[in-house]
Amino acid sequence: MKLRSRTIYSAGAASHLRWAALPAEIRLMILEQAEIGNIKAHDLSNWARVSREWQTFFEPQIFQHLKLQFPGSDIDDLNSCVHGYRKDLVKKISLHVRTEEYDYVDKFDWPETRDTIKANNKVFSQALKKLFVSLYMVLWLAYSWHQIKLDRRLSERSKPPFGASHRHSEESI
Q1: What is the rounded distance in angstroms from the CA atom of residue 111 to the CA atom of residue 102?
Q2: Dist. CA 80–CA 152, nearest whole Å
Q3: What pLDDT score was predicted for residue 15?
Q4: Which top-rank group of organisms is this from (predicted)?
Q5: Beta bridge partners of 113
Q6: Exposed site from 4, 25, 63, 131, fewest CB < 10 Å?
Q7: 127 and 107 share a domain?
Q8: What is the DSSP letter of 69?
């Protein structure tokens, strides 16, 4: 007796089969038309999980500009996220270092104390050292060194009130 096997696909699998049936040129045109200009790289990572094809399309946009925060686990996670071909996708790294709260929250126009300056310098130095060690592990040891732009930014845990100006403009810092 001969048994017939009937394959039943879920709705998701059926739509995936229809996508795969399209010619590669058409699929690429559809992906290029996706409105991704205002979408953050973090949100694009969900799109990259759809399939290997989507991963190949979206990962260059996800990894071209990495935004890391310190303190936090971002620099530690760099080694586990950026490996293999992804190393070559990284073109820019922004490091945002958050310093301790300013000494004179209600008098933000006063100069920082020596202790605050020393503490901020220490945190910033720790962040840069940790980032450079991580980059060495990710890129140099893998013989994949290429030019990466590094953007550094400092911010205090407390900001001056909205609309208030500081005696030091950003241009003079």
Answers
A1: 10
A2: 22
A3: 55
A4: Eukaryota
A5: none
A6: 4
A7: yes
A8: E
Q: How is residue 102 written in tokens?
A: 């300013």
Instruction: Check whether residue 122 and residue 41 sit in a common domain.
Output: no
DSSP class of residue 83 equals -
Residues forming beta bridges with residue 99, ordered by sequence position: 156
171 within domain boundaries: no
Q: How many helices and strands (H and E) does the chain possess? A: 6, 3
Task: Walk along the chain (173 residues) and give the pLDDT tens digit of each residue.
Answer: 443 444 444 555 555 568 778 888 888 888 887 766 666 666 777 777 778 888 888 888 888 888 888 888 888 888 888 877 888 888 888 888 888 766 556 666 777 788 888 988 899 899 999 998 888 777 665 555 567 777 776 666 554 433 444 433 334 33
Q: Is residue 73 located within the same domain as residue 56? A: no
Q: How many domains does the chain have?
A: 2
Residue 167 covered by a domain: no
